[in-house]
Structure formats: structure tokens, C-alpha cells
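Hey L., structure's done. Input below.
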Amino acid sequence: MEQEQGWDPEVSAFFIRIINAIAITLFWMLTASTIGLYAGLAIPGEFPIWVTVLYYLLLVLSFVALIRYLRNAWKKHHK
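Output:
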């Protein structure tokens, strides 16, 4: 009997979802920290306080959007 080559398609899809989730999260983290530190928006005192508050508000909102996206991406594969 010949053994099948490669991975089971379900296992492969699972690992692809894991890699995609890690990649999107890393992209969000790098983008948020680069904008915050490079532009100085994350450092209080560099800009008026409302600019810093706006940056952190957008950071929190984008994090919530990231979590919703990841939850929906994982939920649709469990149905």
C-alpha cells in the first residue's frame, strides 16, 4: 500500500490560518509602532495632547478591528 504524500488538506488549511493570523498581527504591530514612534505620535509632549489621544484612540479602534477580523476568519472555518 502506497502512503499518501503531503499533509491532510484540513491540517494544511489550519496551519495556513495560523500563519495568516500571525502575519496580520505582526503587520498591525509594526505599522502601529512605526507610525507612533517614527512620527512621534506615541510620545506625549511632542504634539498637542489631542493628537496623542487621537493616535491612541485610533490604535485601540484598529486593534478592535483586528480582533474582529481574526475572530471572523476563524469562525467561518468552524461552521
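The chain has one domain: 9-75. The longest helix spans residues 9-38.

-- N.
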